[in-house]
Design a protein that fits this description.
With 191 residues, the protein is mostly helical. It contains eight helices and no strands. The radius of gyration is 33 Å and the shape is elongated. This is DNA polymerase delta subunit 4.
């Protein structure tokens, strides 16, 4: 076995698990059991003063519950105003084409999209066809981020960037009778 070289000026501390080990950090003096008991007395008195679950009655209302009805968050209000402004703009050529799309064409589009999927969708049984299409559009990352922007504005932005968003999505968005949400589902979850 080859011999190892040792340098004379090695000042690095070595681990030793014996009784004569060197300590690189100063340690606190060991406390006695009486000091430990003194330290625990304030904690024990605090615990005895806190009410137990049996003493708390369920009939009392919590003092910090709000009495006002909750209002929608500021982001929700901003997106609603943004959606109203988008819908009031004059119709473009793409909008006119989208309004001519029939419900049968929308169904054919969705069936074609479903064929591209490998497995069944989970937790989508109670959604309408329009909501299926819009959630699919929300989660399609090639059209840009969907948080903080209305669906219609996102579709128009993707179209202006020549990303070729599906015209069927625009048809669903412009269909006012269905009352679809202009806010992406992921955006609703995040706020």
């Amino acid at each position: 076995m080859p011999t190892t070289r040792r340098r004379g000026g090695n000042t690095q501390a070595r681990l030793s698990f014996g009784s004569q080990s060197r300590v690189s950090k100063p340690s606190a003096a060991q406390s006695t059991t009486s000091q430990k008991a003194k330290n625990l007395e304030p904690i024990a008195s605090t615990i005895s003063r806190t009410p137990s679950l049996e003493n708390v009655s369920g009939s009392e209302p919590a003092p910090d519950t709000p009495t006002e009805p909750s209002r929608p968050p500021v982001a929700e209000l901003a997106l609603r105003q943004q959606a109203q402004a988008e819908l009031q703009q004059p119709l473009s050529e793409k909008d006119k084409l989208a309004l001519k799309i029939t419900p049968q064409q929308i169904e054919q589009y969705w069936k074609a999209e479903e064929k591209k999927r490998r497995g069944p969708r989970v937790h989508h049984e109670d959604l309408s066809l329009q909501e299926h299409i819009l959630r699919h559009f929300d989660l399609s990352s090639q059209f840009g981020p969907c948080i903080g922007i209305t669906r219609l504005k996102r579709w128009r932005r993707a179209d202006s960037l020549n990303l070729n968003p599906p015209i069927e999505v625009l048809a669903v968005l412009l269909d006012e009778e269905k009352g679809v949400s202009q806010r992406a589902y992921v955006d609703e979850l995040m706020s």
